[in-house]
Amino acid sequence: MPSRCFLAITLPDPVLVTLGSARETFLAGAPAWAGEKWVPRPLLHVTLAFLGALDDAALEAGVPRMRKAAILLPPFELRLAGVAAVPSPRRASMLWATLSDPGDALTGLRDELLAAFPSAGIPPDTRPLRPHVTLVRARSPRRVDPDALADVAALARAAGKEPDGVVSVPSVTLFSSTLRPAGPEYREIAVAELAR
Description:
The protein is of the alpha+beta class. It has one domain: Cyclic Phosphodiesterase, Chain: A (Alpha-Beta Complex), CATH 3.90.1140. The chain has helices at 13-29, 56-70, 105-114, 146-159; strands at residues 3-10, 37-38, 45-54, 76-86, 92-100, 132-142, 166-169, 171-180, 183-193.
């Protein structure tokens, strides 16, 4: 049975702790958001690409190609850069922790790894990625308190200047996603290590 798959960067524990602090900071100024769909800490990640439903044959062919492509690319770092209300603070459906990507390394990595899964039928994307971690999804679009947003964005920017805000990228993980009543369930299918 085909699995809904995506490529992602997992987050180190110090960044997860920082994002937990970001949630608390935001909710202190915007308590009405407490009932929205906050992403559980173990599921926080940076999505590189959605691959759609891949069957076993596509995975068996694609995973070795993904690993061969990744091992030729150097590791790099992303840094927390702020928090954004998406698509806008007036009608936000999500809050993102944004990340800096010097040299568009993430875009290059995404393009190389997507080529390993031609059966996914994903056309090349020429737009640069907007690296982010989805923190919360609103049940319906709603206004974000500007002071709460400014406070949490400042926390993330400050963390990005410290080790607790650095996301080292030594590998990429291929996950499958299954929607459950309580929310999505992710299963690790394969890890592709970047060059050492």
